[in-house]
From TrEMBL:
The chain crosses the membrane at residues 21-45, 67-85, 116-134, 164-187, 199-219, 239-260, 272-291, 311-331, 343-362, 404-428. It comes from Zobellia galactanivorans (strain DSM 12802 / CCUG 47099 / CIP 106680 / NCIMB 13871 / Dsij). Keywords: Chloride, Chloride channel, Ion channel, Ion transport, Membrane, Transmembrane, Transmembrane helix, Transport. This is Voltage-gated chloride channel. One of its GO terms (molecular function) is chloride channel activity. GO terms for cellular component: chloride channel complex. InterPro entries: Cl-channel_core, ClC, ClC-type_chloride_channel. It is found in: Membrane. The keyword Secreted does not apply.
Length: 443
């Protein structure tokens, strides 16, 4: 029997099935496009990151060249990135994940025609300059904007807006770290209040993240991002140390979130020409980089050196302090870039530092300090972003240390519960609320 409009229940069911199948096909397209853009993004960044360090000749009689060329390269990258964002797409500043959460709630517009090119190119300049920023924020925002682009190009219904943007976000994180499961978990956990759950929207996430990761593995390479020792964990007598470590990370997370917001407010309030700001930051980054390259950049080489026991405990402490404040300064400046990788780097450093001291005092309990380095990745993610499952998944996928799940769970849950009890809100919720409270709009 038909309804008043002459449409039978069978016809409605057929239309619904067609819409769901289109959603899954669109998710595949989003994943492929996002994976392709992320691959190009990663390959260009890899080439530019080595290009910057070639300026540092290291000869005493050519010290001015060691300073001048790296500083000029860094200055131009920061200044041009700030220029592009401020003039053409202010919402492309920072990681952009808070913008995606706002878009899923319908309180922020997704202007993919401007954001896609600006986020892509401005992020290349900012991330190759030596700033302590990660590629995952840009790829997540790029992926989400690809989702909106596919919706607009194929004139999909408004109902498809949420799952397609979410699929793009999952694809972006998956393609940044070769971590498809983390991309899926991130949307489910971090965006749980924004993502509309049903069977097909969840399937779309899986298709998008999987296809994006497949493209990246074809074009960039497969395997875990971080090459570390594959550990076993059979002695449970040291589990209490991971609880203590998680407690410490909860306080680090509170400090990081608070100082990050203060840095954003500081750079927002000061009335200084962006060129002067870029010059000042370039001077700091260049000076620190000349002392130690491990203290600047996104952190992948720093993590590798830390896992290889290349640092003393004294240097690890200095490395943590310097990278902590430079990460906050880099993000606060307003250039595009994510905080996942800098946070993960801080987690590894703090884990190696804690593990080294724990091994000194409890040699029979701690088999290798690097286990705490892996746990630190999950714990600091849980304490700042308050996404313990994502931190757990990322740590395991990026290092292939699947047998460390138990100690990682103890670290992550302790860090997330303690930081929550102490009143530390998730950083992206804070950033979104900050944007909405200040009435900032895209121009």
């Amino acid at each position: 029997m038909g309804n008043r409009n002459g449409t039978s229940s069978k016809d409605r069911s057929v239309n619904l099935d067609i819409r769901n199948y289109k959603l899954l096909l669109n998710a595949l397209l989003i994943g492929v496009i996002t994976g392709l853009l992320s691959s190009i993004f990663r390959l260009v960044l890899a080439r530019l990151s080595t290009f910057r360090t070639t300026f540092q000749i290291g000869q005493a009689d050519q010290l001015w060249q060691d300073w001048f060329w790296p500083m000029l390269f860094t200055f131009f990258g920061i200044w041009f990135s700030i220029f592009l964002v401020k003039k053409y797409a202010p919402e492309a500043a920072g990681s952009g994940i808070q913008e995606i959460e706002g878009a899923l709630d319908g309180v922020r517009a997704v202007r993919w025609r401007k954001v896609l090119p600006i986020k892509f190119f401005a992020s290349i300049f900012s991330l190759s300059s030596g700033l302590l920023l990660g590629r995952e924020g840009p790829t997540v925002q790029i992926g989400a904007n690809v989702g909106k682009m596919v919706e607009d190009v194929f004139k999909q219904s408004v109902e498809e807006d949420n799952p397609l943007i979410s699929t793009g976000a999952a694809s972006g994180l998956a393609s940044a770290f070769n971590a498809p499961f983390s991309g899926i978990i991130f949307v489910i956990e971090e965006m749980n209040g924004h993502f509309k759950f049903n069977f097909y929207s969840l399937a779309a996430l899986m298709i998008g993240a999987g296809s994006a990761d497949m493209v990246v593995r074809f074009l960039v390479g497969s395997g875990p991002i971080l090459k570390t020792t594959i550990f076993t964990f059979e002695d449970l007598s040291g589990l209490w140390l991971f609880v203590v470590f998680g407690l410490i990370l909860s306080f680090i997370g509170i400090a990081f979130n608070k100082l990050l917001i203060e840095a954003l407010d500081f750079f927002k309030k000061i009335r200084i020409n962006p060129m002067v700001i870029a010059l000042g930051i370039a001077f700091v980054i260049t000076a620190v980089g000349l002392y130690s390259e491990d203290m600047i950049g996104s952190g992948y080489s720093t993590i590798a050196n830390a896992y290889n026991d290349s640092f003393t405990l004294k240097f690890l402490l200095a490395l943590f302090v310097v990278r902590f404040f430079l990460s906050i300064m880099s993000y606060g400046s307003g250039v595009p870039g994510g905080i996942f990788t800098p946070l993960i780097t801080l987690g590894v450093i703090s884990g190696m530092l804690f593990g080294g001291m724990a091994q000194y005092f409890f040699p029979d309990v701690v088999q290798d300090p690097a286990i705490f380095g892996v746990a630190g990745m999950a714990g600091i993610f849980a304490s700042t972003i308050r996404a313990p499952l994502t931190g757990l998944a990322l740590s395991v996928e990026m290092t292939a240390n699947y047998e460390l799940i138990l100690p990682l769970i103890f670290t992550a849950v302790t860090a997330s519960v303690c930081t929550t009890m102490l009143g530390n809100a998730p950083i992206y919720s804070i950033l979104l609320k900050r944007i909405l409270n200040k009435g900032e709009t895209a121009v």
